[in-house]
Amino acid sequence: MLIRSVEITFMRGAGLMEIDKMVEQLDVLIAEYQDLIATRSDTALASDRAKLVASRLESAIDRLAVPGSSYVQQLDLYRIEKRVKYKIRDIYSIALGLRDDLKAGWTTSVMELVHADTHSGYLEMAGTLLASGYKDPAVVITGTSLEVHIRTLCTKHGIDAELPNGAPKKADVMNSDLKKAGVYNEARKKQITAWMDLRNKAAHGDYTCYDEHQAHMFIDGVRDFMLKYPA
Q1: Do 19 and 50 meet the contact criterion of CB atoms below 8 Å apart?
Q2: Which pTM does this prediction carry?
Q3: Which CATH number fits domain 119-228: 1.10.10, 1.10.3470, 3.40.50, 1.20.120?
């Protein structure tokens, strides 16, 4: 499936990140790992520094690879592994593969389809992909647009979009906060929950749980929501 082979990156509340910046971020973390293993010691790989490098590599893959891609799928497999001692090596391999594919330009075909300067917004990108037969990336992009808008709505209405530790709140938490603040009612909250469930199905490969008509309704619904509740 297309969604498993392309890397479309969304910065939080921003536009499409340029590939060279993505590569630069990965290069920095890969260099940190290579410096770490220069000690040639298993003790080094069990250190607090190694855990920090592994965490940063894991976060970079999550941030730079589209949900449901092969890179994220591999990462999810390692997340359930109990071989903590060698986890960093596995994560490094995924990050290295992602970096090399980006540098080789193997993501350009879909990047051209969704290039920011040929579309006025993410929903237009989603519509283009859906019209081209790519319903699954269209649903992921629409869900990402929805989450960004919800986060912006929180900022507009003085609702904290981050947890006390600085981590971003999940979409379902922000959705509940907006309902509690009276920005919209319970019916709207439930609709957004259903939309995010659809996005999660696409992101996790449950492609048979919805069809092109539902994807089209999703895009139209999110567009109407953004018009009714501008941020």
Answers
A1: no
A2: 0.52
A3: 1.20.120
